[in-house]
């Protein structure tokens, strides 16, 4: 980036940032208080340019030409940001910039009043996201287009005064007031909601499981099974009712994994679900004082000794570099043993920033089978469907280095093409 307009812009920005940093170091309180609005204004200008650039690239098909169907995914890789941040910028681009139809016809911005104020720096990117969210709601869609256009003007004006949280509450009330008739009456019973959330703890083993069952039959089946197994074992059982219920649920799941028919435990990702216990070689030599489970939790020596008595648990011994010691046999179709080893090494999709678990992933030959690539651990990587397709249809490449997958971005994402890899879990040895 030594010559050209981008280099010039980079130089000028560097000089401007240096000047602001000098004010921070040497300025008075008054100077520093004035510096903060200046920084916020600069952020809003940069956000405006970013959003406009995303819109231009999307209209030109630049992301599609590089193998990305989703602009947000391309932006997340290019800028190395979370997908939520990338989606927010793409969403803003879709609402505050002109759109082009398939026949080439250009349509004005969906939110023209918002676009005007975002362009002159009176609104932040978060304000734009709030307005787009409120005006895309079901209530907003029921409002007459002319009234909705006037509402957008009013909301954009108030956005210059309200912070994003205040704006969201006020704009939602406005839209609900304009939606005088509300949703059409529905004599049908409300839909039944049956949901379960499994959320692993970020800081260690275990996690939270919460659920809701409106279906009375399903709820009774679960409640009956839990009740049958959660009774106190004897008069010395001092566990609380909640603790006994939690133990009962774990017992039911363990029994199903071990002994349930195929209809109850279907294959996921090409194999039946099995608990993996990852044991470091040093730990094994040290009488197995700890191990790592599939979802990243560390189990205690007591739990490990209990698990290793169970034939449905697959112990996988790791060497000091965190690599499985056995790679299985070589053939085109990924054998179950190699898939297990790849799953243990990659912990799901290996692409940086992706958190898809192994059950949602496929195993990819780094050096293709048709080009004499072998089916072995050092030539395999686990990828979700999105990143598997991306690897086949874009300039991304992957290699194994020190036994760990690392991805080389195309030059348009990183001119230096520095390798990227996911953070490794803390060694339990």
TrEMBL record:
Q: Where are the transmembrane segments?
A: none
Read off the Pfam families from this record: DUF222 (PF02720)
Enumerate the SMART domains for this protein: HNHc (SM00507)
Enumerate the CDD domains for this protein: HNHc
The residue ranges of the HNH nuclease domain are 337-389
Could you identify this protein by its name?
A: DUF222 domain-containing protein
Please name the source species: Pseudonocardia nematodicida
């Amino acid at each position: 980036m030594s010559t050209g307009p981008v280099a010039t812009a980079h130089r000028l920005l560097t000089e401007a940032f240096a000047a602001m940093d000098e004010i921070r170091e040497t300025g008075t309180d008054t100077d520093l208080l004035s510096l903060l609005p200046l920084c916020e204004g600069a952020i809003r200008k940069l956000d405006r340019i970013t959003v406009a650039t995303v819109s231009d690239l999307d209209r030109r098909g630049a992301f599609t030409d590089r193998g990305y169907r989703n602009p947000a995914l391309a932006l997340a890789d290019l800028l190395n940001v979370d997908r939520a941040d990338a989606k927010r910028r793409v969403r803003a681009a879709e609402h505050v910039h002109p759109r082009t139809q398939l026949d080439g016809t250009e349509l004005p911005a969906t939110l023209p009043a918002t676009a005007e104020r975002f362009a002159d720096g009176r609104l932040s990117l978060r304000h734009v996201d709030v307005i787009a969210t409120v005006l895309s709601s079901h209530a907003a869609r029921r409002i007459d287009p002319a009234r909705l256009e006037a509402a957008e003007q009013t909301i954009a004006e108030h956005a210059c005064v309200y912070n994003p949280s205040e704006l969201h509450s006020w704009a939602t009330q406005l839209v609900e007031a304009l939606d005088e008739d509300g949703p059409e009456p529905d004599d049908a019973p409300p839909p039944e909601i049956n949901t379960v959330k499994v959320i692993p703890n970020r800081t260690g083993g275990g996690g939270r499981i919460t659920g809701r069952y409106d279906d009375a039959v399903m709820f009774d089946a679960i409640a009956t099974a839990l009740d049958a197994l959660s009774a106190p074992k004897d008069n010395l059982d001092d566990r609380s009712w909640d603790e006994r219920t939690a133990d009962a649920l774990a017992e039911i799941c363990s029994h199903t994994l071990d002994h349930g028919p195929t209809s109850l435990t279907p294959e996921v990702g090409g194999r039946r679900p099995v608990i993996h216990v990852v044991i470091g070689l040093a730990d094994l030599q040290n009488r197995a004082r700890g191990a790592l489970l599939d979802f990243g939790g560390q189990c205690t020596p007591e739990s490990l000794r209990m698990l290793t008595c169970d034939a449905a648990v697959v112990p996988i011994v790791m060497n000091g570099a965190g690599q499985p010691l056995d790679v299985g046999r070589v053939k085109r179709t990924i054998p179950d043993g190699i898939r297990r080893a790849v799953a243990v090494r990659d912990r799901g999709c290996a692409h940086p920033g992706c958190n898809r678990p192994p059950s949602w992933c496929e195993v990819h030959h780094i050096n293709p089978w048709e080009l004499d690539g072998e089916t072995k651990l050092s030539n395999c990587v686990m990828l979700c469907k999105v990143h598997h397709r991306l690897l086949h249809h874009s300039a991304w490449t992957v290699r194994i280095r020190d036994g760990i997958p690392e991805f080389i971005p195309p030059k348009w994402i990183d001119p230096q093409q520095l390798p990227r890899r996911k953070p490794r879990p803390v060694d339990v040895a």
